[in-house]
Task: inverse folding
């Protein structure tokens, strides 16, 4: 068990977004993954989170993972550079008090992509796409809030990047967390 600080942040209006001053390089692009598979999602999750102790999703079966990916208002956008994945942002929506809430469910860069200014550009584009999620999902109400949480196990640039993009802290708490091993097998034993 480890004592972890969890910080919750939000944007309440599109005008609160502070875009990254560093644009994507010419050899980079961000693409929405239509019909994402659990295998590709897991590849992204492990590629970003294996050094950050991300393991909460690794206990899911393939069917459970797929169920999360197929929820209405769930999208994954991947940052590619020279054709190779460099990071991603996964969005998940829910009904909020004043419209649709969009959670930045997962966000990050592969280890080789950190320190190059790509995180700010990926987060900026991901937030812009989150605000327009209801345009791609007509059943959703307009987006009224984008939120996320980060913790002290995440990379040192995570919280500063969120704050630099205009997110405001609305809650912070400490909790005991079991730090799991992110090097588990592809799917839990006995899972179909």
Result:
């Amino acid at each position: 068990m480890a004592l972890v600080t969890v910080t919750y942040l939000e944007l309440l209006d599109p005008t609160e977004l502070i875009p990254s001053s560093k644009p994507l390089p010419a050899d980079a692009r961000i693409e929405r993954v239509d019909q994402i598979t659990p295998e590709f999602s897991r590849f992204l999750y492990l590629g970003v989170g294996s050094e950050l102790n991300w393991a909460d999703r690794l206990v899911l079966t393939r069917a459970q993972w797929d169920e999360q990916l197929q929820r209405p208002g769930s999208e994954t956008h991947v940052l590619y550079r020279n054709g190779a994945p460099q990071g991603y942002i996964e969005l998940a929506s829910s009904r909020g008090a004043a419209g649709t809430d969009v959670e930045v469910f997962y966000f990050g860069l592969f280890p080789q992509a950190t320190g190059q200014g790509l995180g700010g550009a990926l987060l900026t584009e991901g937030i812009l796409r989150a605000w327009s999620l209801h345009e791609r999902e007509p059943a959703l109400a307009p987006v009224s809030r984008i939120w996320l949480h980060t913790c002290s196990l995440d990379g040192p640039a995570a919280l500063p990047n969120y704050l630099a993009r205009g997110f405001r802290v609305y809650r912070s708490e400490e909790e005991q967390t079991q730090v799991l091993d992110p090097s588990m097998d592809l799917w839990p034993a006995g899972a179909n």
Observations:
- The first strand starts at residue 2 and ends at 11.
- The helical segments are 38-49, 62-69, 118-131, 133-136, 158-164.
